[in-house]
Design a protein that fits this description.
The complex is a heterodimer of chains A (493) and B (487). Chain A is mostly helical. Chain A has helices spanning 3-19, 26-54, 86-103, 111-130, 134-143, 145-155, 160-188, 196-202, 208-225, 234-241, 244-269, 271-297, 302-322, 327-358, 369-372, 374-388, 394-407, 411-417, 419-436, 442-445, 453-471, 474-491; strands spanning 62-71, 76-82. Chain A has 22 helices and two strands. Chain A is globular and about 75 Å long. In chain B, 75% of the residues lie in helices and 1% in strands. With 487 residues, chain B is mainly α. At the A-B interface, helix 5, helix 6 and helix 7 of A face helix 17, helix 18 and helix 20 of B.
């Protein structure tokens, strides 16, 4: 067992341990699960640190485990490894999982099951980001759906059952196309293999039509996860109905799996498919940016606003993913993934903090909260600014790179996409204005309490990282530089 | 006598004798002692499995009885199904059929003997006899609740449809005999090729034979459009028998189908030399089964009917491996059936115990089960997720293998259709999970299964999880089984 295996399976071990803990001792259950997500987080930070100093200069896989024979009848292998695009994702997952578990300490209903499912979910997510074998990748990809289904369905809001099954069916629908493409790749490779690294080498020799087909199949699978417009309709339901911590994971990690899958699998594997579909992809990104922003603007519910802003923000990723010949654009994609994970994760946490106290999320119900709960207001304003791309914070860096990188490929589309920034500013600022400025309704919200220490601790690391990346993006971009340069040459084949 | 290895029949003979012993034992046993017969039946099945591991490999009675790897693999499935069905029956035996327990268990074992003969038959007559020996005890078992109108009705239905389909099958087999002059499946394959080489074509008689045999076995498999009996029979029969029917009897049909089509008529799986290739017929029937089974299952409110339609759909998936008609396909089918044993028997065991406790088969009455009986609900969840094909459970690997064989054989459209319907199927499987977990109700009862049923549930969960994560040992055996047919 190597470092990566520990990162994947410690949460699983944690969920097994919790199964044997007494059902009513909430305290022990909470701290056990915190422990079993804290260690993987530390390990993922160590991984990032070590990768940065030891491996960042090369595009090779690091911390490779395997390939070990697993199911030889179908050439499935246990094969793990990380490079510059997976390391940031592993660290993000480790961080957000731990913070979400901290944020879940206020769960009072069926506590034991909650943390069992949550830790299972973490195992699935980590597995996706480090698997280098298609069978393993697919298993982790799917395994995650089950705990997510339960987490939304049991602890969710009023329409939880609908949201849970919709999420499950949508994602499964996407992944079946992926499965067909995997099988086609398996049978067209000689000798038959499911090794992703091998297939990246050999798949570009497939016929033009087969490349287009496989690319399209993978795209459906990944695009539903991102979600790319018009596959996004599961997102508002799932994000809004899910409990706070699960929304954080959904927005912070699950959406990134789609874009990660594109970078890891279909982009380097089918260059011809990519060339063929690049413009439609960028267009879909543009539509997502504008559509998501416009719909956010119309929302009355704060959580829905944040949910739709994800559609808009992931649109930037898609736009840049279309501009596959530019290293800057690819760096932009990765930055946007990290930055959106931090910012939207924090926004969902903050929405949850307010909802726990006020039991409503309706924007119009509030006003002038800045008087009563200044610290909370400060944090909320900070992340709203980060979300709209204020310079000095990570959102600005990533959006700037996306635009610079995409402009040389798609001039008009990129120019139109910049409108999205204005629209984002419009709905974010309007939300801030209506909720935190203006007249304070003391009769209604006089009893509102300030954000407590535990809650501050859950968002503070995100705030710090947002600012650090915004001010000094160098280290993060160095981690992924070599990998992305290699990726761009692979895609140019 | 040289060449006759009669000892290969010892497992079958033992199980047969044990069934008769159970009949007799019941005469002498005290009526109050409800447990011993069930344990004896389980013991007999276990002993048969041990005997089977000692005596296998070879032929008896010329080529009539083949104790090959394929037969061995499926015999384990039959014995597993019988073991689990008996284990699930303890409550029913002590409460509902206390006057006829010996016959109940004995008939299950007799039917299992029939399946074992069937899976060893490489010869049409033996195959037919095996099939009859499998089915006739089941007619009785299905109608076992004499006072329950549904059970009697389903027994009647099963008897009429079963007899009718046996006749059709027999007719088809007789045409095959007429065409080839032999009942031996391997000779049949050779003779058919000779006829083809001599004449350059094969007459319309073969079309008739293919259609009749597909219909005849299709009834046993509940393959659409020969499935109409299944939901009613599944609903009316005692629930452990439903499980046994859906796993054991189906697996028997699967072997028969494999022996006749994938071995004897392999030359006609594609349209190279056939007047009518059975591959495309079965592919169409399989897709009909997947569509109809899954869509109809969506609307079911009774768990047994839901599982009935689900098993119709499952046969559709499994048939993809048959259609592929390759060694990969056959080993996938074998593995599929193996996992299906655990998942489906497990689900029916849950339904049995739940009915014993609450008297209800309605899906809606599962509401809130996870609160009162968390372990029980978790078992059901595992079985349903495996049936739905969610990784890392066995059902996923099984589906993956079957679909892989379909893609390899060029049936990409069939696989895509299968995957689409698999998404649909998730909805009704998840519906039960939703009831158990998401409902706000808290039932007052607490389900504690009797010990034998706990063993069955444990075997089921362990099988689905362990053979899902580490399928390689079973896959090796399945690959051995597939080698029986020379492709």
């Amino acid at each position: 067992m190597g470092l990566l295996s520990y990162i994947i399976f410690l949460p699983l071990l944690g969920s097994l341990v919790i199964l044997f803990l007494p059902k009513d001792n909430f305290k022990v259950i909470r701290w056990t699960s915190a422990f079993f997500s804290f260690i993987p987080m530390l390990l993922s930070f160590y991984l990032t640190y070590d990768y940065f100093f030891a491996f960042a200069g090369s595009s090779q896989m690091a911390y490779v485990e395997g390939p070990f024979q697993w199911i030889s009848a179908i050439s499935a292998q246990y094969f793990l490894g990380v490079d510059g695009i997976s390391v940031p994702m592993v660290a993000l997952t480790g961080l957000l999982s731990f913070l979400s578990i901290l944020a879940s300490f206020n769960i009072e209903k069926r506590v034991k099951e909650y943390f069992v499912f949550f830790l299972l979910l973490e195992t699935g997510m980590m597995g996706v980001f480090v698997s280098l074998d298609f069978f393993l990748f697919y298993i982790f990809w799917e395994v995650m759906l089950v705990p997510m289904y339960f987490l939304i369905g049991i602890w969710g809001g009023p329409r939880k059952e609908y949201a849970a099954i919709k999420f499950f069916l949508y994602t499964l629908f996407g992944s079946i196309f992926m499965l067909v493409a995997i099988l086609i790749l398996y049978f067209t490779s000689n000798p038959h293999t499911l090794n992703i690294l091998e297939l990246i080498k050999t798949a570009p020799t497939l016929s033009h039509s087969l490349q287009l087909l496989c690319f399209a199949f993978f795209f459906v699978g990944f695009a539903i996860k991102v979600p790319v417009w018009p596959f996004h309709t599961w997102l508002p339901d799932a994000h809004v109905e899910a409990p706070t911590a699960v929304s954080v994971i959904l927005a912070g990690v699950l959406l990134k799996m789609g874009t990660y899958g594109m970078l890891r699998v279909s982009w380097p594997m089918f260059p011809q498919g990519l060339k063929f579909f690049a413009i439609p992809i960028a267009l879909l990104g543009l539509i997502g940016i504008i559509y998501g922003a416009l719909v956010s603007m119309a929302q009355k519910d704060l959580k829905k606003l944040v949910a739709y802003s994800s559609v808009s923000h992931m649109g930037y990723c898609m736009l840049a993913l279309g501009a596959f010949s530019s290293v800057t654009a690819m760096t932009g994609v990765m930055f946007q993934m990290v930055s959106h994970g931090l910012i939207t994760g924090a926004l969902f946490l903050l929405v949850g903090v307010l909802y726990d106290r006020a039991h409503t999320r309706e924007i119009a119900a509030f006003g002038g909260l800045g008087v009563k709960i200044p610290v909370y207001t400060g944090l909320m304003v900070l992340f709203s600014m980060a979300s709209l791309g204020l310079p000095g914070m990570s959102g600005f860096v990533s959006e700037f790179m996306v635009f610079v990188g995409s402009f040389s490929s798609f001039k008009i589309i990129t120019a139109l996409a910049v409108l999205g920034v204005v629209l984002t500013a419009a709905y974010m600022l309007r939300m801030v204005q209506r909720m935190f400025l203006g007249e304070f309704n003391i009769a209604k919200w006089g009893g509102l309490t300030e954000i407590n220490l535990r809650e501050i601790l859950t968002v503070a690391p995100l705030a710090i990282l947002t600012i650090i990346i915004g001010v000094y993006p160098g280290p993060l971009s160095n981690i992924m530089k070599a990998t992305l340069e290699n990726l761009v040459t692979l895609m140019a084949r | 006598m040289p060449g006759i290895k009669i000892e290969l029949l010892i497992p079958e003979m033992f199980l047969f004798a044990w069934a008769l012993f159970l009949f007799l034992y019941d005469l002498g046993a005290k009526r109050k002692n409800s447990q011993s017969l069930g344990y004896l039946a389980m013991f007999g099945v276990a002993v048969t499995a041990v005997l089977l591991s000692l005596f296998h490999g070879g032929m008896v009675f010329g080529t009539m009885f083949q104790s090959d790897q394929l037969a061995l693999f499926f015999k384990v499935i039959f014995l597993g199904a019988a073991f689990m069905a008996v284990g699930a029956s303890f409550d029913i035996a002590s409460e509902k059929i206390h006057n006829h327990r010996g016959e109940y268990y004995g008939l299950i074992l007799l039917s299992t003997v029939g399946m074992m003969f069937l899976s060893s038959a490489s010869e049409l007559l033996m195959l037919y006899i095996g099939l009859e020996l499998t089915t006739i005890p089941l007619y009785v078992l299905v109608a076992y609740f004499k006072d329950d109108r549904l059970s009697v009705e389903s027994g009647m239905k099963y008897l009429i449809v079963g007899a009718f389909s046996s006749a059709i099958l027999l007719y088809g087999l007789s045409i095959l005999y007429g065409l080839t002059g032999t009942t031996d499946i391997v000779l049949m394959k050779i003779n058919l090729s000779l006829v083809f080489l001599a004449n350059g074509k094969i007459g319309p008689g073969l079309i008739l034979a293919i259609v009749m045999v597909i219909a005849g076995i299709g009834f046993k498999l509940a393959l659409v459009p020969f499935h109409m009996w299944a939901p009613d029979v599944y609903q009316g029969a005692p629930t452990p028998i439903t499980g046994f029917l859906s796993v054991g009897s189906k697996a028997a049909g699967v072997v028969a189908f494999a022996r006749i089509f994938v071995n004897g008529l392999i030359g006609f799986a594609t349209d190279v030399m056939a007047p009518l290739d059975w591959g495309i017929i079965v592919a169409v029937l399989a897709s009909a089964a997947m569509i109809l089974g899954n869509i109809t299952a969506l609307r079911q409110k009774n768990i047994k009917r839901m599982l009935a339609y689900s098993s119709i759909a499952q046969i559709g998936y499994l048939m993809i491996g048959m259609v592929a008609a390759t060694d990969r396909g056959i080993s996938a089918v074998s593995y599929y059936m193996f996992i299906y044993l655990f998942a489906n028997m497990g689900a029916f065991t849950i339904a049995t115990i739940f009915n014993d406790k609450t008297g209800s088969d309605g899906i809606i009455s599962y509401a809130g089960l996870s609160k009162s009986s968390p372990g029980f609900a978790a078992c059901m969840t595992v079985f349903l997720l495996s049936l739905a094909g969610i990784p890392p459970l066995g059902g996923f690997v099984a589906k993956y293998l079957v679909f892989a064989s379909g893609i390899q054989a060029g049936y990409t459209w069939l696989v895509i259709l299968a995957l689409l319907t698999a998404v649909v199927s998730l909805y009704y499987y998840a519906n039960v999970i939703k009831m158990m977990y998401f409902s706000s109700e808290s039932p007052s009862y607490k389900i504690k299964p009797p010990i034998p049923a706990q063993i069955v549930l444990f075997i089921g969960v362990a099988g689905v999880v362990i053979f899902g994560l580490f399928p390689q040992p079973i896959l090796n055996l399945a690959a051995e089984a597939a080698k029986v047919f020379a492709f």
